Amino acid sequence: ISLNLNTNPFDRSFPAKLPKEEIKVSTSAGVERKWLVKDKSASELREELNRVNSENKKIKEMLATVYENYYALHHHLEKLQSRKSPEIDHIEQPMKKTKQDPEEFLGFPNGLSSGKTENSSSNQSHHYQQQHEQKNQLLSCKRPVTDSFNKARVSTVYVPADSSDTSLTVKDGYQWRKYGQKVTRDNPSPRAYFRCSFAPSCPVKKKVQRSAEDPSILVATYEGTHNHLGPNASAGDATSQAGSSTVTLDMVHGGQKLGLETNERRTMQEVLVQQMASSLTNDSNFTAALATAITGRLLMEQSRT
Amino acid sequence: KDKSASELREELNRVNSENKKIKEMLATVYENYYALHHHLE
After folding, report:
1. CA-based angle B31:B33:B35, to the nearest 5?
2. What is the pLDDT of residue A169?
3. What is the pLDDT of residues B4-39, one digit of tens each?
4. Which of the residues in chain A have pLDDT under 70?
5. Phi-psi region for residue A173, left (φ > 0), alpha (ψ -120 to 50) or beta?
6. Given A11, A42, A198, A272, which residue has the most CB atoms within 10 angstroms?
7. CA trace torsion A118, A123, A127, A133 (10° rounding)
8. With an 8 Å Cβ cutoff, are B40 and A73 in contact?
9. What is the nearest CA distance from B17 to chain A, expressed in angstroms?
10. Dist CA A74 CA A300 (whole Å)
11. Contact status of B20 with chain A (Cβ, < 8 Å)
């Protein structure tokens, strides 16, 4: 006969974890022994609880890390999709950086533990955030977004061009007004200067010159940020010039195709993210743990090692 | 420390359920993250 008092409705959930002593003890045992067994089981339960709580804390940290990385990557993808042009397929440094960053992220697939060994500091969260911001800035280098970076942000785009074409035009969907051209010392091809057709309200300028190393490549250098609707919005603009309109529409179609390929996945991911965000925010303990995990992740990893 | 065995079991059950939920979320996020990374490559 079992001494199990059956006071716990969750007993059935943990049949294997119930202390065996409590089951084996017969009713002939005295009350003292009964309490001894009960104390022992409580002790074991405490140990088990500590272990599970420790595991809980650990997987919360993992989730925070993976979620953070996932969110950053998703953000990068959105930026790339919204800005990538099929015609402009060579970007100087940002795309190289894109290839490298996920490798850094994927340092933790085994055991779901981040393999990062960055220096820890009191403001690791800030450091980590800075990293993400730097990545985002690099990825968005082709088309600066915020006005605050108007003057500082310069991006270079390489565009294949017919060597017989001497117009030095890079069709990027925006309309440009050429205001100058000059010959530079280091390049036999002249450099053309353009302003956005919305100037002076739009400050963006563009310099176009054939590459000195490879004359089949046009090098376009953009300065500033457009403060008006971009190429997609101008696609339906009846006032667009014929050449630009055609190119713009092609870009839009290309973008839609790209979007359709990933639309389903993105939708699913967004729903999942929403679900996760909802779950996270509903759990105050988890929210607190998440904040702690993000800020102290690196420090904890170091202390574990 | 003063919790009874039944309270401890209850707490254990709650934490176990939470763990299970987090592990599922972790698997989902990681799966999506990996898919996203693969797509970007």
Report:
1. 70
2. 79
3. 888 888 899 999 999 999 888 888 888 888 888 887
4. 1-40, 84-153, 229-305
5. left
6. A42
7. 160
8. yes
9. 10
10. 26
11. no
